[in-house]
Each structure stands twice: as structure tokens, then as C-alpha cells.
What we know:
single chain; alpha+beta; Alpha-Beta Plaits; binds glyoxylic acid; ureidoglycolate hydrolase activity; hydrolase; EC 3.5.1.116; signal
Amino acid sequence: xxxxxxxxxxxxxxxxxxxxLSSACASTSTDQSWIRTMEEFSGYxxxxxxxxxxxxxxxxxxxxxxxxxxxxxxxxxxxxxxxxSDKDVAARRYIKNLMExxxxxxxxxxxxxxxxxxxxxxxxxxxxxxxxxxxxIPYSGKYDxxxxxxxxxxxxxxxxxxxxxxxxxxxxxxxxxxEPTRFGISCLGSRLMAGSEGLANALKxxxxxxxxxxxxxxxxxGYHIDQEDFRNVFLxxxxxxxxxxxxxxxxxxxxxxxxxxxxxxxAAPASIKVEFEGNGGHAGAVLMPARNDAGLAAAELALAxxxxxxxxxxxxxxxxxxxLELHPGAINSIPSKSHVEIDTRDIDETRRNIVVEKIHQSAxxxxxxxxxxxxxxxxxxxxxxALSAEPIIKAMEHAARQLNLSHKLMISRxxxxxxxxxxxxxxxxxxxxxxxxxxHKPEEFASAEDIANGxxxxxxxxxKLSQS
Length: 468
Ligand code: GLV
Ligand code: MN
Ligand code: MN
């Protein structure tokens, strides 16, 4: 192409680029004359000095994060949004509206995973997907998961405003119930998508703490699930790549002043439910030698969890007793039942499994020594770790470099829907800093600037992967 022809084309591009920029998020134009291929798109730095200028509407995105946080069962600044609750249903409606406003075609599967698709030039090719969750554990914050859903929709808006047209379709996913709050099952939506027959079967019997079945809870939220529908949730060969944008939930990026974390692996979680049963009795009348206190068995097991985790000798091994319930729960009654839920994780699966086995042995010996019954020791899940795909790591690194953003490779100690998406698609994750690494509490915070940086890296990576 001659220089004479190139200059007017660039002039036209810049004219329309700034036109789209000034009309901010409103434009979802499909006018074919301004659609550009990735070759042109990645040509930004060659004709304009400096990094690609991706017009993120950071203010609009912050407003959406704030609006979504109002769908909560606890007062601000905390957020509590539990699967299939009224607030969850309202928040889902909010997300579907935003997807539609961005010109995405929206569909939902049987359990309420929500998909918004932007058709690429070649709809026969596997799509590039990105997304996260919007459910929130009790008294948590407004950024966990949310940044990866609203940020994904904004990344699509950014690409549309820039006149980009994908070759592979791009899809935003809002996953159902990444958090285990209601039914004790983490990553319920993505686990099913990844084809978990075990979960599809277990859901037939699953009830929440109020004894409401999974099916009834789903029905109340508008999802009339038939057992066979679970098979329709399973996906295979649907995506060529999956990306998730998320707050780090740890302090490293903030402490080191790094803008972007590029995740290489996700630590492997296991969760366990334990129940002890004793005779209970009157807190004054039953003398100490005659007791078999189920509460003390639970307390001893909690300390054993800490001991076994520390014995691993690695700071990568962690263990938490996040739930410890006593029955009947009266100050003057010896606990006759106790219920303990344990979460233990590691980047090394074998080491994590050794901890699980030690916890099991401790539960058996504590029950024996305290003459209580170990009525349940159930491993709810014992997931293997996931590795990010090398080409996606490279694409994310390249995008961060193009955007002049400092970045580092790191592992994710929290689990994410990406852990399961990695089973059906090459996977990668983008982390952004969050205040003091706080998460799962109301103080969780990420700055608008850091979120915008994450959205830019996501947009540029999606653009690249959609052309490959
Ligand atoms: C996810 O919420 C986790 O607990 O890692
Ligand atoms: Mn979480
Ligand atoms: Mn999360």
C-alpha cells in the first residue's frame, strides 16, 4: 500500500477513534465500514507513539460496581449475595441488562450460568470466553468476582468502541455460585460446565441449611431444572481460551507496586465436613469424668488442623476451620453434637492430600479418646490444582508490555471458576492489586485505576486470542 493511501486511512481511524471516545460507553455501532481486524488493531503503537489507548469508562464501571453492591442482604459496606436469593435474582437481571446494552446475545443454562456472546467473523470457530462470579459470601466486599464480570462487559465495550471486530466469537460468562455458601459446593456452575457427573448426581440429594433442596431453591429463582438438564450444562470444545480478571485477594501486587499479576497456577483446595456426637447433658450436674463433649472434640480437631498444616513445613500449605457449630447451643448444656467445616489448600496436591489424611486420622483418634462418635467425615471436594496455558500467559504478558504496565507472574492461592474452566479450555487469569490484600470482608477495595488497567489487559488479550 502506498504512503499516500495509508495516511488518509489513519486520519479517518483517529477521527472515528476520538469520536467513539467522546461518546464514551454509548456506542455499540455495528457499521461495517469501521470494523477493523486485529492486524490493524495491534498496529496502534506503530503509527502512534506510546501504548495502545483503550478507552475504558472507569467512572461508569465504578458506578456499576456500586450499584451491584446494593443487591445485598446485609448493610453496606458489606455485601451478602447468596445463590438463588431474591438479591441474587435481582443482580442477575442487572447483569443480563448490561450484556444486552452492550449488544451481546444473552442465554442462560439450566443452573443459571449466564452467557453474553459477541459473534465473531467465523462463528464456526470455538469462542474466546471471559468471566467470573457475582455471588458474595456473608459480609464480604463488592469486588470479589464482580470485577471479572462487569470488567469483562466493559472490555467488550472497549473493543467495540475501538472499532474492533473479532474473528472468533467473544463470550462473557457470569458463573453460578462460585462461593460454597448455600449448598457447600464451590464453583458449582463452572464445575458442572466442566462436566462433573459426580456433582450432577450429588445435586439430586443436595439441601441447604434450611433443608431446602437445590431443585426447589433453583425453582424459586426461576430455574425449573430437570435432572437431564444438568447434562446440557456440560461443555466441551466450546472455547479456545478462557480468561478471568480478578482482584488478587492477597497483598503482593500492592506491596510491590506492580499493576498486573499474571497467574501461572491456581492452588488446590479441599473441603471437609466433620460431625461428632456425644451424650450432652446438664452443664452443672454432669461431672467432668462422665462427659463426652462433642464441642471439645471439634475444638481439638480445629487445633489439629493447624498443627498438620504447619507440619508441612511450607508456607504454601494453609488450613482454616471456618465453620464450627455446636448443638444445642445453650450456655448450660454440654454440646451433644458438633459440626466442623475445614478448608485446606496448597499449590502441591500431594502435600495437601497428606494434610487431609492426617486430619482424618486425628478425627478418628480424637473421637476414640473422647468417647464421642465420629458420625461424619466427608470430603466435599478435593480438587487438583490448575495450570495456566503458556500461550495465554504469553498473550497477557505481551498485552501488559504493550500497555506499559508493570506485571509479574504469580500463583493464585484463592480458587476461581478458572480452576474448572482449565479442564475444558486453555486458561489464564489476570490479577489486579487490592487494598492490603483484603478480601471476603467489607474492607475489600480496588482502585478505579487498577480496575481500568485490568480491563485494558483483558481487552487486548481477548482481541489477540480472538484472532488466533
Ligand atoms: C474463593 O472464594 C476462595 O475461597 O478461594
Ligand atoms: Mn470469594
Ligand atoms: Mn472470586
